[in-house]
Design goal:
This protein is of the alpha/beta class. It is 34% helix and 21% strand. A seven-stranded mixed sheet has the order 3-2-1-4-13-14-15. The protein has a five-stranded parallel sheet with strand order 8-9-10-11-12. Strands 5-6-7 form a three-stranded parallel sheet.
Length: 406
């Protein structure tokens, strides 16, 4: 899963930017199969894009005409995919080792731009990156149109100190809001490499999620143990991440409360183990920690199957993509279908409209419908029959701008 240094070459960056220039005229896309992101399937559909938005969707349209801009009659078109949990700035340094800190912010930005580009080329038009100030700079550059990448939402940093009082936590949340955060990331547990035990009290969790709600910010909580997960859900937090030690009873509790669940089962642990030599000896990346990651894989798969069997549980799509995983986000979805037994159409809904809903953006992205952002991708094959077709992204449009076309 190595990433080539795409953005070391400024010519490639310039070419990618020029390819994304919006067209003034309507863009007409003919799709052989169209998956609308909410479970609907249409054949021979036509999508008309004006500016950044979808103007019209016609089902059973005739073949390509002179008005057709992109003839994708032999491809499957679906909404741009959404990853609700990434770390877009994480990277390996020139020596191939994980580099948690860069001496130069320019260097940090360059790596973040590389990761953003390969993520977009993989069909992900929106990501939620949680934990680094560089994410905000990347968001600004992408929004300005000077760098190709997915739409970025960010927490800028995280609430992760058990020493903070509830009042200090409230102030920290207010500061995140003032600094432009889109959401609040909260660590309520240790890393699974360190056992996954609770780090915040019920009062601290209530302060973080309560203040976030008062500031109109969503919350994403890193948490493993059942008791703490229950406290997180009861506090009104938006989404539970990981939850590897959760029980069927607590899964039902999440469903009843409407808390989103993002288990991260098919990419992050596997990526750590695949790139063990790149991480080992840095921070808490020890032999014992890596062994714990290995043990977590079958446990997480069992939890995912239990989650699928929980009526009404909202299982969203997130990968926790770190260094080595960017651009390979879709492997999480393939794993959920092939190993976890998730229905392919339900899996595609989770990575599109349901994830958009969890970001409070269901009226903007995640569905192919008039009035929504024209985030469209096309893949070679039918992912409803073969989910690995999602690896073969041959067309990417974000906000009406085409970044990739075969």
């Amino acid at each position: 899963m190595s990433i080539k240094p795409i953005f070391r070459n400024s010519i490639i960056l310039l070419a990618a930017s020029l390819a994304a220039i919006a067209q003034d005229q309507p863009i007409v896309i003919k799709a052989g199969t169209l998956l609308d992101g909410k479970g609907g399937v249409q054949r021979n559909a036509s999508v008309v894009v004006v500016g950044s938005k979808i103007e019209k969707v016609d089902s059973n349209a005739k073949g390509a005409t002179k008005e057709t801009t992109y003839d994708l009659h032999n491809l499957t078109v679906l909404p741009g995919m959404i990853d609700t949990h990434v770390h877009i700035g994480w990277h390996f340094g020139p020596d191939g080792r994980y580099q948690p800190r860069d001496e130069s912010q320019v260097t940090a930005m360059g790596y973040a731009m590389e990761n953003a580009y390969v993520t977009l080329m993989g069909g992900f038009t929106t990501v939620q990156s949680v934990g680094s100030p560089i994410d905000g700079d990347l968001r600004t550059a992408i929004n300005r149109g000077v760098a190709p990448g997915p739409r970025v939402l960010t927490s800028l940093r995280a609430i992760n100190s058990p020493a903070l009082t509830p009042d200090q936590i409230r102030e920290a949340v207010k500061k995140m809001k003032a600094d432009g955060a889109d959401l609040v990331k909260i660590f309520a547990s240790k890393s699974f490499r360190d056992g996954g035990g609770a780090t915040l009290s019920k009062e601290q969790i209530e302060a973080a999620c309560g203040e976030a709600k008062a500031q109109h910010l969503r919350t994403l909580v890193h948490v493993y143990e059942p008791e703490t997960i229950t406290e997180v859900s009861d506090a009104g937090c938006t989404a539970v991440e990981h939850g590897t030690l959760i029980t069927p009873e607590v899964l039902k509790h999440l469903a009843a409360k409407g808390t989103y669940f993002d288990p991260n089962i098919g990419l992050v642990a596997q990526n750590y183990l695949e790139h063990k030599a790149n991480y080992l000896g840095i921070g808490n990346y020890t032999e014992e920690g890596m062994a714990a990651m290995s043990r977590s894989i079958p446990i997480a798969l069992k939890v995912f199957k239990e989650a699928l069997a929980t009526p009404g549980l909202k299982i969203v799509f997130g990968t926790d993509a770190v260094a080595g995983a960017h651009g390979h986000n879709v492997e999480e979805l393939i794993y959920r279908v092939q190993k976890g037994g998730q229905d392919p159409n339900a899996a595609i809904t989770s990575v599109t409209s349901l994830s958009a809903e969890s970001l409070s953006m269901g009226d903007q992205i995640g569905t192919i419908a008039p009035g929504l952002q024209a985030d469209l991708i096309a893949v070679d094959g039918d992912p409803l029959k073969d989910i690995t077709a999602l690896r073969r992204v041959v067309f990417v449009m974000k906000g009406g701008k085409v970044f990739k076309a075969r």
